[in-house]
Write a structure and sequence with these properties.
It is a single chain. The chain is an alpha+beta fold and 204 residues long. It has two domains: 6-106, no CATH class; 118-202, Sandwich (Immunoglobulin-like). It is built from four helices and eleven strands, in the order βααααββββββββββ. It has helices at residues 15-29, 42-58, 64-92, 96-101, and strands at residues 6-7, 105-106, 118-122, 129-133, 141-150, 153-154, 159-164, 168-171, 179-188, 191-192, 199-202. Strands 5, 6, 7, 9, 10 and 11 form a six-stranded antiparallel β-sheet that branches. Helix 1 (15-29) runs antiparallel to helix 2 (42-58) and helix 2 (42-58) runs antiparallel to helix 3. It is elongated, with a radius of gyration of 30 Å.
């Protein structure tokens, strides 16, 4: 599991959006219960924000010198918030709630990929599919069955495929353009499992 950290993910936003976020973070960091020992005094943070905001307003007329000053003030604010980011990460120590209460955004944990129990892909020619199974610990073989289905309901009985000892099974001689439900069950020393929830595949 990756460690949750605060992010400086808004430095690429427009100056008008950024100033709003920077003000909010300053308000949150003023909470001395959560953040008692700011490495930069709150007065300094507010002064940098005020300078940045004043420079934004002054640059609205489009004057090159005013825009240059605004850019300088923006860089000062960005550098300050990098320092604050490091402080928040040190205080939070991976605690997502503390990070969020600081006003910074917290990194998201990556969502693990979970291989489905059963999947189906197109076969090498029309009327065929390849059923791909997730290997089951202790299984020595697998049972596969399929049936035609429609949106309005099932229109045929289950057809069982020969028992397979591998997890990729070719099913042939299906009707192109028809939708099929497919299920699998594993066979082990403990017996045969229940069939899994069916998936649906349209054969091409």
């Amino acid at each position: 599991m990756k460690r949750t950290i605060a992010l400086l993910d808004f430095v690429t936003l427009s100056v008008n959006d950024k100033i709003v976020i920077y003000k909010n973070i300053a308000i949150q960091l003023a909470d001395t219960l959560l953040f008692p020992n700011l490495e930069v005094p709150i007065e300094t943070i507010n002064a940098v924000i005020a300078d940045f905001e004043a420079a934004i307003l002054a640059a609205k007329d489009g004057a090159h010198s005013a825009i240059a000053i605004r850019n300088d003030k923006e860089q000062i604010a960005d550098d300050l918030y990098r320092v604050l980011l490091n402080y928040v990460n040190k205080v939070a120590n991976g605690n997502e709630t503390t990070i969020i209460k600081s006003g910074f955004h917290a990194s998201k944990q990556p969502t693990p990929y979970i291989k489905p129990e059963i999947d189906a892909i197109d076969g090498g020619h029309s009327g065929s599919i390849i059923v791909v199974l997730k290997a089951v610990l202790g299984a020595v073989a697998y049972k596969i069955r399929y049936r035609k289905s429609t949106v309005s309901g099932v229109i045929s009985e289950w057809v069982e495929v020969d028992i397979s000892t591998i997890t990729r099974i070719l099913i042939d001689n299906l009707t192109p353009g028809v939708s099929y439900d497919i299920q699998s069950a594993s066979i082990s020393s403990a017996g045969t499992s229940d069939f899994c929830n069916p998936i649906t595949k349209i054969v091409i």
